[in-house]
Write the structure tokens for this entry.
Amino acid sequence: MNRLRVGIVGSTGAVGLEMLRLLEETNFPVSELSLFASERSVGLTQLFRGQPVSIRPLSDTCFRGLDLLFNATSGELARKYLPIALEEGTRVIDNSSAFRMNPEVPLVVPEVNAHRIDSSSTLIANPNCSTIQMCVAVAPFERAFGVKRIIVSTYQAASGAGKEAMEELVEQTKAFVNGGALEARKFPYPLLFNLIPHIDRFEENGYTREEMKMVNETRKIFEKPEWRISATAVRVPVIRAHSESITLELERDFDPETIRAVLNDTPGIVVQDDPETNLYPMPAQAALRKEVFIGRIRKDLAFEKGVSFWVVADQLLKGAAWNAIQIAQTLVERVWNIRF
Ligand SMILES: NC(=O)c1ccc[n+]([C@@H]2O[C@H](COP(=O)([O-])OP(=O)(O)OC[C@H]3O[C@@H](n4cnc5c(N)ncnc54)[C@H](OP(=O)(O)O)[C@@H]3O)[C@@H](O)[C@H]2O)c1
């Protein structure tokens, strides 16, 4: 076999649209593509390699014959439908949070733990978007100096909450220009000219579920249950690309020159760090890029052995669709022996 029957669930959403585009851009070995979305989209078509593909609804039999399925819908739909695909013998890469903390399911950021992908992998979970970019950035520090503690604050774009959330910010902008009222539907408050320190629901410990995903998923990916991690996740009025302020307490003393050289040599990372020329990562420049951008690297003043830095990445790409495609590239090579 040198080409696969591939499906995308949620192909019309913010992540699904990027998955579709990347399958084409990477020349993914697709022999036949199946697209699934809600009843609202059934009857519409999407273009793949110049050909229209009909969008189909989910059903108990819709995955029959598929080799590989990407899920880009909610955790609730993932829990209902992905077991059906697995029963059919379809391998699955899931963007939702449904199975991420299941000990049987590999949770993969290829730059950190691609070794978790092998021919026995039937279901692989793609981590949370903020977690992915943090893990890519933290990995070289862990390798060079050892990490003891992570303190992170996120600045998360509207599109992190899906296409309707992204549209809501655009509508609020138009309403402001036209002198109208700012309406909030997806977010608890209007996001325009605002910051909302609340992503996903609050947990009993005072952290939000988004913040606890960053804690628990990072520990699982690095296999470091002992890591002390504290996160504050904030929604900001940016359309696309998440930013993070990260402070690490390290095991060994931090040497800025060594780490710059290490980061410059790390695949998937771009260092943008020159205060003299005002060079630092920003979401407007990271949008539509697949890399993780790191800058403002400095010795931390609060920890004796600590470093602080600023990380930006397009969360629809590296935080979701691109990470899923990277996983798929490795899976396809290890299971079907197809390289592309
Ligand atoms: N957005 C991000 O930055 C990001 C990053 C990492 C992970 N994720 C995760 O990726 C998943 C998708 O997120 P998203 O932001 O792309 O959401 P989204 O923009 O809201 O898209 C949701 C997709 O699910 C489809 N859908 C909704 N109800 C359905 C149903 N009953 N049956 C079949 N399809 C249905 C929608 O189809 P219609 O167009 O027909 O409504 C749409 O294609 C979520 O689990 C999310 O947590 C998102």
User: Anything to note?
Assistant: The radius of gyration is 20 Å.
